[in-house]
């Protein structure tokens, strides 16, 4: 809070001048319009942007720390955020395995490991999840749950246990089948509208992938077998290096 209060208007304007520039711009458009028409209509807006002499994309590496940050506030419940390192490149041949694994671990809602262990079996949280959160600037596995203040320590220990077991023992054939069914069955939703198709193309371009990569990835997901996926998981020891940031009641 104090650091935010110290930000001056000049610092904010300088930041926008450096970063909101043409060099950092990516445009994606589609519809019943010609390319030249689009260029003519957008140029008036782009003229307002600065040009930068040089731009360098920042990247942030995960801090492999075992420290647990806790903030004591007046709160009726504990808000627990957690993250682990994940350094697989978008173009890596195993990236589709990571998508399946994280769906099973915590991105799949009911039926996912974290939801089943934290909510269904123990009733420690209404909702709990973990998902693959990868960008060009940073990559990680990110998760969240909310529980009673008195259950915060137990919930954190449980997350550690779930991650360790997940890496060591892998997933079952049933979990793999369920993950495949959802990921493949819901894939049509990525292309159901022009806006979504443009979003997919923009994401592929941003990540340095060729246009159409997602469809090829779905074919790899369909062919994935349990042995390859569990072998992949055994190599992901960094997933156990979980870091927590929590907001707990002051008392």
Describe, in plain words, how this protein is organized in 3D.
The chain is of the alpha+beta class and 251 residues long. The chain contains ten helices and five strands. Strands 1-5-2-4-3 form a five-stranded mixed sheet. Strand 3 and strand 4 form a beta hairpin. The longest helix is centred in the middle third of the chain and has 18 residues. The radius of gyration is 22 Å and the shape is globular. The model has no long low-confidence stretch (mean pLDDT 91).
Summarize the structure.
This protein has 251 residues and is of the alpha+beta class. The protein is built from 10 helices and 5 strands, in the order H-H-H-E-E-H-H-E-E-H-H-H-H-H-E.
Rg, Å, rounded: 22 Å
Spell out the helices and strands N to C: HHHEEHHEEHHHHHE
Distance between the amino and carboxyl termini = 22 Å
Bin the helical content.
Answer: 40-55%
Q: What structural category arises from helix and sheet content?
A: alpha+beta
Measured by DSSP, the beta-strand proportion falls in 15-25%
Gross morphology is globular
User: Strand count, sense and closure of the main sheet?
Assistant: 5 strands, mixed
Overall average pLDDT: 91
Low-confidence stretches: none
Number of strands: 5
